[in-house]
Write a structure and sequence with these properties.
Blueprint lengths: L7 E3 L6 E3 L4 E5 L5 E4 L7 E5 L3 H10 L1 H6 L5 H15 L3
Antiparallel strand pairs: 1-2, 3-4, 3-5
Helix pairs in contact: 1-3
């Protein structure tokens, strides 16, 4: 029996590869809004980030997330993404 294929994605912040299930998807929807996609199934262009605050900070600071999504990130969306990144790293 062949081993099951595990999808791999690259983090937009640290550029390291991890399995898709370990990553958090951020999506630019058809209307141009940028949101966190907890299901990983929303329609639109997606980018992946590690669930580490450093990766979220770097991706937003350097513009690599906006580049991967091919969209400008508004200040309100940036704030929402920063809060989402902080909440992922918080002890639960």
């Amino acid at each position: 029996m062949k081993p099951r294929h595990i999808p791999v994605r690259t983090c937009a912040g640290c550029r390291e590869e991890h399995s898709k299930r370990e990553m958090v998807r951020v999506v630019r929807t058809e209307n141009g809004a940028v949101n966190v996609d907890p299901t990983g199934k929303l329609n639109g262009r997606g980018a992946y980030l590690c669930p580490r605050t450093e990766c979220w900070d770097r991706a937003l600071r350097t513009g690599s997330l906006a580049h991967a999504l091919k969209a400008a990130i508004s200040p309100a969306e940036r704030t929402a993404l920063e809060l989402a990144g902080e909440s992922l790293a918080a002890p639960g």
